[in-house]
Amino acid sequence: MSTPPLSEASRTEHDAPLAPLTTLRVGGPARTLVRAATTDDLVAAVRAADAAGEDLLLVSGGSNLVISDAGFPGTVVQVATRGIEVEDAGDGRVRVRAAAGEPWDAFVAHAVQNGWSGIEALSGIPGCVGSTPIQNVGAYGQDVSQTVESVRVLDRETGEVQEMSAAECAFAYRDSLFKRTQKGSTGRYVVLAVTFLLEATDRSQPVGYAALAQGLGVEMGERVALADAREAVLAQRRQRGMVWDADDHDTWSCGSFFTNPIITAAQMDEVRAHVVERFGPTAPEPPEFPAGDGMVKTSAAWLIDKAGYGKGYAMPGPAALSTKHPLAITNRGSATAADVAALAREVRLGVEEAFGVRLVNEPVFVGHQL
Ligand SMILES: Cc1cc2nc3c(=O)[nH]c(=O)nc-3n(C[C@H](O)[C@H](O)[C@H](O)COP(=O)(O)OP(=O)(O)OC[C@H]3O[C@@H](n4cnc5c(N)ncnc54)[C@H](O)[C@@H]3O)c2cc1C
Q: Which residues participate directly in catalysis (predicted)?
């Protein structure tokens, strides 16, 4: 199968550095890098790589990727598609479809400006629209499963483009069908566009996160002006180094490096016992939230901190925990992917030895493993 020519804004390079395409700024080169600026080019580039039996990696904002120092010995397709379409969905709602390569935070800002409510608590998250369904991106009491109506995908197994309903995406905490159907380094499904169903109002959705409610000076469940919700989220994220900034090494990360463990009530009892063993009768209470089906969710940041890996652990680096948040592994400027992985392993082992819980990484490892 011959590769169709790319449109003008798209391009192909060889032996192209990948670190600058990621927020962690680590990883070796791609043998071939195709920048796809239109959906047709994106589909064509993926089909061509698959037809040639090439290993394929999709990179959008690069904010959830830890690419190995050896780089990627196949084709990397950078998703750089643009476009937003809006229609009235009736019942005071709007249907907004965004191309996969639209920068996520600019999309949220656009929604807030236009009075579309439902994604305001996801302000300040780096990356692109098309990656948000992959791990069901979430923060401050919202996640995209609450507003995604459907996802347009290229199914690499059938070669067909299809629309998947939210139910078919099987969203769960930081998880979806997309994450569970890996094919090589990238998923079976390539997200081409995402359709959100948002409420047409200048009020936020009910505030669903205690620290955010506190920052806004309201009770949980209250609604505030959309712009106020966005600003409050951005302020809290900046304090925690969770808004990417080239000048701030605390943000050269993948955000949270580990997901919050979801464990059984019996395992939670064991965690509590370990905490008492470690800190004595006045031990602090580990955080605990109901997670359905008799399961509980505890806090990875809390476990890491209490296992002895506080903010700034391993400073000055080259890889260290953020000085603003113990859950972010950061590159202080000269870290390699191996440095990041070594620190992640140390933290994971330390938490397991202290509390008997094995943390699971949130970012995707490419070409190496944790
Ligand atoms: C400072 C900081 C803060 C963060 N805060 C949060 C947070 O609050 N909540 C949260 O959930 N996440 C957070 N993250 C993680 C990250 O921003 C999100 O997971 C984001 O959605 C990743 O988007 P991306 O475009 O950068 O994806 P990439 O890193 O480019 O890709 C991630 C994965 O998705 C695949 N992929 C990319 N594009 C597509 C596509 N079009 N179709 C199919 N697969 C694709 C890639 O191959 C890879 O496996 C944070 C990261 C940073 C650096």
A: 174, 256 (proton donor), 362
